[in-house]
Design a protein that fits this description.
heterodimer, A: about 625 residues, alpha+beta, Penicillin-binding protein 2a (Domain 2), 4 domains, six-stranded mixed sheet, five-stranded antiparallel sheet, 25 strands, B: about 425 residues, mainly alpha, three-stranded antiparallel sheet, 3 strands, about 75% helix, globular
């Protein structure tokens, strides 16, 4: 030891130098830190003071409630909000060493998969105070269980998260639509209307069209919060939320349900409309979907399944699908013939079952022929030959196109839900311009019986029939009856019928057209199936041929004679060719008319009518 | 006690230590008060109790001649190593690592005390080998002594605490008379390893430029390229050194630096294997807190917000909003400096810096004037330990150092750290008191 001390004294100089070096290093460090501190505390102090305030100042959203949607009776909402809960985890408050265990217990209570929790909250988030939603749509009962055991789950919180609940007839899915989180693309369009990236947006139907009315406005609470988001002190400024307004639809849920069941599981659609106002009483498109399932936890899988379904359940076939109207088009041909007076209604034409034109035969649906027919019989029997000849030789293609347009085909009706298509009305100019083929007599033949290039939507058909019923005027079809205040229930904005088309065609034309439509039911093609005695039905059947399959139309109204036009309804049923052929459209219409005019449900109608095809 | 001894009694250190502890307790109290005035913890009461016991401990240590430690150094050292092993085996797991040893309801952090015992052990070892300090083998054996606790602490895992040992080792070897060349070698390997760990992470998370550049640095190719070229240069210069007749200096320096690079690459690769993703991010997040604004970046941001908003004079005791609202994480332990800076401002911080500076500078001066080599080694190791804690903890709070959870001595809440700090200060006073 003594030696080492000797040695030590020899090296005292070295030690001095080295210790001085360490002291200088320490001094440099303290000076550097002092200057650094000076720069953040004194030079940039204001900036950090502001940030410190901002970090504690929280603008929290007080969520509003979306307006409810009622049918025309304004008693039970078709769409309402139900209280559902979302469970969040605040990762910073979770004990990650026991997280696996906590997740397992939590999953047990919420009856979900443990891995759902583990995949959403990872140890990487361990310092995060922003809550992470692990599950929504949790029932009140499960939240009760969670609340009883909350001491076991520090860092687990829940909040009310109302979801839409559809409780009307299932077939209203297309009319009412559904809501979902706004997409980036939608936000780009809507951002200046007050939407944010957190907004819930109507995606279809009424929810989409009237989103701005339904959504209300979120309230805002300015408050000071601590790091855990807990409010401290008084809420300094609160802007209360404005609850979304309630919508009352023109839909009659009883008629909707009746129509839904009358159509059954057949791909197709039904429109029930009040011609005197344009109000839609029922609008069914099959297949429909269940919006409640879209809001469920398996919503995205359901959405994917619906999107992949080749029957296109998201398609509202009443307005988004256009078909050849087939013989139902003869209603408007008849009106045109009568109005133009190009061919006497009493003059008869012989139907031999087929007619030769150009290089081929055109057939009537009855191959043996109808014999001699005047206009009313031709309409009742739906004779193609009569309309071929009168259409081509007497009315002419230009008149046909003119009248087709006059009844509103080829143009959107302007119904108040998005996505409507315009259908298509061909013309010789169009054919030459786009197909580079001249219009031939066969095209006129086809047009005359509603085949060929002509495409119409079921709603256009209903609207055109309304024009006949109203004798020259039709109204914009509407689904919204009125907007009501969510609190007082007072009507804020009532529905006023708006004229869509008005023609100066003669009243007699329409009266005669209506009587020919009545003939279809009394002595024509629909005689055997339209059996209701509850009202006088007038209409026109149509059978479209798509390859070897046949689609079925029935466009009708009732009552045929009335002193009160307000009680009249137009029913259009369209059953696609994809279904097994059973000539269903007039049968469904029969049920619907009977149900409407006897105030019966589908089941009662079935019992009451007692016809073979319903057994 | 004679007159001479009284003159030697280092009141400056004692006063600084007591002032710092009082400030620490005040702000631990401050950190426990929420904005509504509710007291959410009793940490400050515990800290008072520890400080009181600590004072008794200090007095006891000052009374016993530090030289007796030299003869017990091996036993003390291996007791602390034993405790580290016990901690590893039976310790309580907190936040995923075993750092605490529960004894009769108290948690003991053996890794804190082990710093002192290691310093004592290394100091003793260097006294025994004082004639051989210029030999590389001495340095190597010294490194093995330090490596023992370091490995045990890394296994807990507690990177931050383990890291503190390295500068202590370097500084002690430095003052004990090792060759600068050798110390530089180790220091450069350590520094370069850290840089090499950070570079790929920096390119992965912060750099926003050419994709090709990123993929080069993030890929293992980056390490391979450096390693192979370093190894090649090393081999060539070694060949040159031994084959040429004239021993050119630059062959030696080429070999010196290329081997540093090669070893650093290996170190970096091993570290990247050991470190977990979030630990890697913590290493670079201080360079840009935005890359992890909800995780590690959160701490840095809140800490800087709190410190910056303190201004010149601070918001006043118990008036800090960031801590009141509990935006500061671990505000009584790792981030105690932030709360202090927020409430007493720049001028208050200068006082804190001054108190630390006094202890550290006095410590180094004691090292210089100690009556024997053991005292020199001890004082240099202790001063460096306090310096490193100050540098890393304050640096982390103001955002110039990576986040490593090590306490700020004397101020941070925690019995083990406080006692370690107080024992250290007592040893400094002890050495000073017994100098010639």
């Amino acid at each position: 030891m003594g030696n080492s001390n000797e040695y030590y004294s020899n090296r005292k100089e070295t030690l001095k130098v080295r210790i001085s070096f360490l002291i200088i290093f320490s001094l440099a460090l303290v000076i550097f830190y002092s200057f650094y501190l000076y720069s953040i505390q004194v030079i940039s102090g204001d900036k950090y003071r502001e940030r410190a305030r901002d970090v504690a100042r929280r603008v929290s959203v007080i969520p509003t409630l979306r307006g409810e949607i009622f049918d025309r009776h304004y008693d039970i909402p078709l769409v309402t909000n139900v209280n559902s809960f979302a469970v969040d985890i605040i990762p910073a408050e979770i004990d990650f060493s026991r997280f696996d265990d906590i997740a397992a217990q939590l999953a047990d209570i919420l009856e979900i998969n443990k891995n759902d929790i583990l995949s959403r909250v990872t140890p990487r988030m361990r310092h995060q105070f922003a809550p992470v939603e692990i599950r929504n749509n949790i029932e009140y009962e499960k939240i009760l269980v969670l609340a009883e055991n909350i001491v076991r789950f520090p860092g687990v919180v829940w909040r009310s998260k109302p979801i839409r609940r559809h409780q009307g007839p299932g077939s209203l899915s297309h009319v009412v639509g559904y809501v979902g989180r706004i997409t980036r693309e939608e936000l780009q369009i809507l951002h200046n209307q007050g939407y944010t990236h957190n907004s819930i947006l109507g995606k279809m139907g009424i929810e989409r069209e009237y989103d701005l009315i339904l959504r209300g406005r979120d309230g805002v609470r300015h408050s000071t919060v601590d790091a855990r988001g807990r409010k401290v002190g008084d809420a300094r400024r609160v802007i209360p939320p404005v609850i979304g307004q309630n919508l009352v639809l023109t839909i009659d849920r009883h008629i909707q349900e009746l129509s839904e069941k009358a159509l059954g599981e057949r791909i197709g659609s039904v429109v029930v409309m009040r011609p005197s106002t344009g109000e839609i009483l029922a609008m069914v498109s099959y297949p429909w979907f269940d919006p409640n399932r879209l809001y469920s936890n398996a919503g995205s899988q359901y959405f994917a399944a619906l999107s992949a379904d080749t029957r296109f359940p998201f398609l509202n076939r009443t307005i988004q699908a256009a078909y050849a109207p087939a013989s139902a088009f003869k209603i408007f041909m008849t009106a045109a013939i009568l109005e133009e007076e190009v061919f006497s209604p009493r003059q008869r034409i012989e139907c031999r079952g087929r007619i030769f034109l150009g290089d081929r035969f055109f057939h009537c649906h009855r191959r043996t022929g109808h014999g001699f027919l005047d206009l009313s019989s031709a309409h009742a029997e739906s004779c193609n030959i009569y309309y071929f000849i009168v259409g081509r030789e007497h009315l002419g293609i230009d008149n046909i196109v003119k009248y087709t347009r006059r009844f509103g085909f080829g143009q959107r009706t302007g119904i108040d839900i998005p996505g409507e298509v315009s259908g298509f009305v061909p013309s010789p100019e169009w054919k030459l311009a786009t197909l580079n083929v001249p219009w031939v007599g066969g095209d006129t033949f086809n047009f005359s019986i509603g085949q060929g290039f002509l495409d119409v939507t079921p709603l256009q058909m209903a609207n055109a029939v309304s024009m006949v019923v109203n004798e020259g005027v039709s109204f914009v079809p509407r689904l919204l009856k009125e907007i009501r205040d969510p609190v007082t229930g007072k009507v804020i904005e009532p529905f006023e019928p708006r004229v869509l088309y008005q023609t100066n065609m003669r009243r007699e034309t329409f009266q005669k057209t209506k009587s020919t439509m009545r003939d279809v039911v009394t002595r024509g093609t629909a005689r055997v199936v339209v059996t209701t005695r509850a009202t006088e039905v007038a209409g026109k059947t149509g059978t479209g041929e798509v390859g070897d399959d046949r689609s079925s139309w029935f466009a009708a109204f009732a009552p045929y004679r009335t002193d009160n036009p307000a009680e009249q309804v137009v029913v259009v049923v369209m059953v696609e060719a994809r279904n097994e052929w059973e000539w269903w459209a007039p049968k469904a219409a029969n049920v619907i008319f009977h149900g409407i005019f006897t105030n019966q449900t589908f089941e009662e109608v079935v019992a009451c009518l007692n016809v073979w095809y319903l057994r | 006690m004679n007159v001479r001894a009284n003159q030697n009694f280092d009141f400056l250190i004692l006063i600084s230590v007591i002032l710092l502890i009082v400030i620490g307790i005040s702000f631990i109290y401050s950190s426990s008060i929420t904005s509504t005035g509710a007291k959410v913890s009793n940490e400050f009461v515990k800290q008072i109790i520890w400080a009181a016991i600590g004072l008794v401990l200090m007095l006891t240590i000052i009374l016993i001649d530090y030289k007796t430690l030299e003869s017990f150094a091996v036993y003390i050292f291996f007791i602390s190593i034993f405790l580290l092993v016990v901690t590893l085996l039976f310790g309580e797991t907190v936040n995923g690592s075993r750092r605490w040893l529960g004894i009769m309801g108290f948690g003991i952090q053996a890794s804190e005390f082990a710093k002192i015992t290691t310093i004592i052990m290394l100091g003793t070892f260097y006294v025994k080998n004082s004639r051989n300090m210029t030999k590389i083998s001495t340095l190597f054996k010294g490194a093995l002594i330090v490596l023992l606790p370091v490995v045990l602490i890394i296994l807990q895992p507690d990177m931050g605490t383990a890291l503190v040992y390295i500068p202590i080792f370097l500084a002690m070897s430095f003052t004990a008379g090792a060759k600068v060349k050798h110390i530089m070698y180790i220091a450069l390997v350590g520094l370069l390893s850290i840089i090499l760990i950070i570079v790929p992470v920096w390119f992965e998370f912060i750099y926003s430029g050419n994709e090709a550049v990123i993929s080069f640095f993030v890929n293992d190719k980056f390490y391979n390229t450096i390693f192979i070229s370093a190894l090649a240069i090393f081999a060539i210069s070694l060949l040159g050194y031994f084959l040429t007749k004239k021993k050119y200096d630059y062959y030696y320096y080429f070999a010196y630096f290329s081997s540093i690079i090669a070893i650093s690459v290996i170190g970096a690769i091993i570290a990247r294997k050991i470190l977990r993703g979030y630990q890697l991010i913590r290493l670079v997040v201080f360079l840009n807190p935005d890359i992890d604004p909800r995780g590690a970046g959160w701490h840095i941001r809140q800490s800087i917000n709190a410190i910056g908003s303190g201004g010149i004079f601070g918001k006043g005791f118990l008036n800090g909003t960031q801590s009141r609202l509990r935006f500061l994480p671990q505000q009584s332990t790792d981030f105690i400096f932030s709360i202090i800076a927020e409430e007493i401002g720049f001028l208050g911080c200068l006082l804190i810096f001054f108190l630390f500076f006094v202890i550290i500078i006095r410590g180094y001066m004691i090292s210089m004037s100690a009556k024997d080599l053991f005292g020199t080694n001890l004082a240099s190791g202790i001063s460096t330990m306090i310096l490193v804690h100050f540098m890393i903890n304050v640096g982390m709070a103001i955002g110039v150092m990576p986040i490593t959870g090590i306490p700020l001595f004397f101020l941070s809440y925690g019995g083990s750290a406080l006692w370690t700090a107080m024992i250290s200060a007592a040893l400094l006073i002890n050495i000073s008191y017994r100098r010639l």
